[in-house]
Design goal:
heterodimer, A: about 260 residues, Rossmann fold, seven-stranded parallel sheet, three-stranded antiparallel sheet, about 30% helix, about 25% strand, B: about 325 residues, alpha/beta, five-stranded parallel sheet, 9 helices, binds flavin-adenine dinucleotide, binds adenosine monophosphate
Chain lengths: ~260, ~325
């Protein structure tokens, strides 16, 4: 039976324009709405799959403000079975702060008899893009870490349970086999995150969420301020809509001389 | 001293983004009274690579080999890099912002209790050392204070242009065979699948590139894209979503962590145009985007665009090309 902890972050859902807070220290998501990154959605799915098979717990956790409970409920609605909310302003926490807070949750749960054999995180958070929380967490916990895997499967071995993690490396697909406990960061692409069902949502509402305070005052990540790049004016010529535009497209190919008889 | 991790391709040559990082290191050195620029390579250093790095102004090439780094492991390689960092007395360690470069810098930073800045574009001051880096998937920039030593960071792909130095460096090879602790080898690569044969021709020198993104919808849905590339005698270039999903091989990826292309014509199909993708295709002379979303950044930045479902549009284009008697 495997027990998995998956770490998610509430981030602004940027598909259009990015707006910064007045102090330039965070992205203002009030207009765009909030989500978790695609990497983390895949990590949640993998946590649910890995525990569903064995009957273990999939616990989701976040460090975030009161509203971040939305992301926890969403993860519960797709199959996580427990949730922990560390209440704090996420942009005040640098990657090392986040790693220490996650490590504290792992240790405290372990002391209560719930050992998170596998901790899954995203490869990088969609807003701060620090690319390091999972690795720092591994050192805090003294565990091995695989970075940027797209699938994970827990298997039994003579040495005890192992996680088999597969990801894209510079020379092809790479496979790791690591004895648990371990940390793995996930890159999207290996699994299709499921949509929550109505019963799933109802069930999620009833799960009690463990709330806790940060164990330490955050030191921050060295951010001075954020800025936006200047907008680029568009000069596009729309050739048309749908298959009807084919003729205009091939006219352009002829004009550019990219076709050969 | 400034130490840059240089990654190599299957032929053992430095990858372009690593040469960009060395170029960045030289700029840093110039701002810091000419402190020496060294490189570190894990694995073989061919004569070609040595010459290349010397031309980029590298003083010493620290070559790391031995059992500890035989198979890839983030912690193992990082421990080796730390050994070199100490032996060389370096205060700055940097790498290109590739997946591996970023991972290794994060490991070294975590091990040395230092900060790590991912995807740096430029620096504005040396004391305090302040860098500007990409955040929010490249949609915003962050000024960040990197005050601890060593200063550890990655350079965003294609943020600077790779340029050889005015004066060559000595390119002297210094050998290191560090011992790596067993606990740092607990998560090592146990097998790597064979890289797929490159059928697409050389992406970086192609005159026409047909691009494919998430909008294509699956590994088995590339027929129309491949047919168009064939009719135009072009190469295929894809977004990272496509390589991560395993629909197409990694060497076809265009962007910050893939190739930079500069064709006469780029035809991105079902690619939104995220800044990291744009970094690899912005030097295309003409861009003709095919996308169902008229507001997608790739569409607004393109020269021409067709709005709609690529699986309806591409067959019509391919048929029209054949009807006009091209590509028999
Ligand atoms: C550090 C870092 C490095 C990165 N490096 C790279 C890199 O090198 N290269 C890269 O590409 N990305 C890179 N990325 C990822 C990048 O941020 C984007 O996530 C990625 O480029 C998006 O790929 P996409 O355009 O295929 O998918 P999406 O952004 O999901 O866009 C899909 C597009 O397809 C359109 N579409 C959907 N269905 C259809 C249809 N039927 N017909 C027509 N259009 C359709 C949609 O309108 C949309 O515009 C990097 C990210 C980070 C953080
Ligand atoms: N505030 C947070 N709460 C929970 N998990 C987080 C938080 N910040 C980052 N993470 C996790 O760490 C991963 C990498 O983040 P980063 O190193 O900041 O890019 C994310 O994908 C999350 O899984």
């Amino acid at each position: 039976m495997a027990d998995v902890l998956v770490c998610v972050k509430r981030v602004p859902d940027i598909t259009e324009e990015v707006v910064l807070s007045e102090d330039g220290l965070s992205v203002d998501g009030r207009r765009s709405g909030f989500t978790m990154s695609a990497h983390e959605e895949c990590a949640v799915e993998l946590a649910v799959q890995a525990t569903a098979a064995s009957g273990g717990q999939a616990t989701v956790m976040t460090i975030g403000d009161a509203e971040a409970v939305e992301q926890l409920r969403n993860a519960l609605a797709v199959g996580c079975t427990a949730a922990t909310h560390v209440l704090g302003e996420p942009f005040a926490f640098g990657p090392a702060d986040v790693a220490s807070e996650i490590a504290a949750v792992v240790r405290d749960h372990e002391a209560e008899g719930r050992s998170h054999d596998l901790v899954l995180l995203g490869n990088d958070a969609a807003d701060s893009g620090d690319f390091q929380v999972g690795i720092r967490l591994a050192y805090e916990l003294g565990r091995p870490v695989v970075n940027g895997a797209s699938t994970v499967v827990i298997e039994d071995s003579p040495e005890g349970p192992v996680v088999v993690a597969v990801g894209e490396g510079p020379e092809g697909q790479e496979t790791y086999r690591v004895t648990l406990p371990a940390v793995v960061t996930i890159r999207e692409g290996g699994v299709e995150p499921r949509y929550p069902s109505v019963p799933g949502r109802l069930k999620a509402k009833k799960v009690p969420i463990e709330e806790r305070q940060p164990v330490a005052e955050p030191k921050g990540g060295g951010r001075v301020k954020m800025t936006l790049p200047p907008p680029t004016p568009s000069a596009v010529t729309i050739l048309g809509e749908g298959p009807a535009a084919a003729s205009a497209v091939v006219d352009v190919f002829e004009k550019l001389g990219v076709l050969a008889k | 001293m400034i130490l840059t991790l240089v990654e190599t391709d299957l032929e053992g040559a430095a990858i372009e983004v690593s040469l960009e990082a060395v170029t960045f290191a030289r700029d840093l050195s110039a701002a810091g009274n000419g402190v020496p620029v060294d490189a570190v390579v894990i694995g073989d250093v061919s004569d070609h690579l040595r010459g290349e790095l010397a031309a980029y102004g590298v003083r010493k090439i620290h070559r790391v080999s031995g059992d500890g780094v035989a198979a890839y492991s983030g912690a193992g390689w990082a421990s080796a890099l730390q050994t070199v960092l100490k032996a060389a007395g370096s205060v700055v360690l940097m790498a290109a912002g590739t997946d591996r470069g970023t991972e290794l810098m994060a490991h070294v930073a975590a091990r040395s209790g230092a900060s790590m800045a991912a995807n740096v574009l430029s620096f504005s001051g040396l004391s305090p050392f302040v860098v500007t880096r990409q955040v929010v998937g490249g949609a915003a920039m962050e000024e960040m204070n990197l005050h601890q030593r060593p200063a550890v960071f990655t350079v965003a792909g294609h943020a600077v242009e790779a340029k050889p130095a005015d004066a060559s460096g000595a390119g002297e090879i210094v050998e290191h065979t560090p011992t790596v602790a067993p606990e740092d080898l607990r998560a090592a690569v146990v097998s790597t699948s064979q890289p797929e044969a490159d059928e697409s021709g050389d992406l970086t020198s192609a005159k026409v590139v047909v691009g494919a993104g998430r909008g294509v919808g699956g590994a088995d849905k590339f027929d129309d894209v491949v047919a168009l590339a064939d009719l135009l005698g072009g190469a295929i270039g894809v977004s990272r979503v496509v390589t991560s999903a395993g629909w197409r091989p990694h060497h076809e990826q265009v962007g910050q962590t893939g190739s930079r292309i500069s064709p006469d014509l780029y035809i991105p199909c079902g690619i939104s145009g995220a800044i990291q993708h744009w970094a690899g295709c912005s030097s295309a002379k003409t861009i003709l985007a095919i996308n169902s979303d008229a507001e997608a950044p790739m569409v607004t930045r393109a020269t021409y665009a067709v709005i709609g479902d690529l699986h309806e549009i591409l067959p019509a284009i391919n048929e029209e090309i054949r009807n006009r008697g091209y590509g028999a």
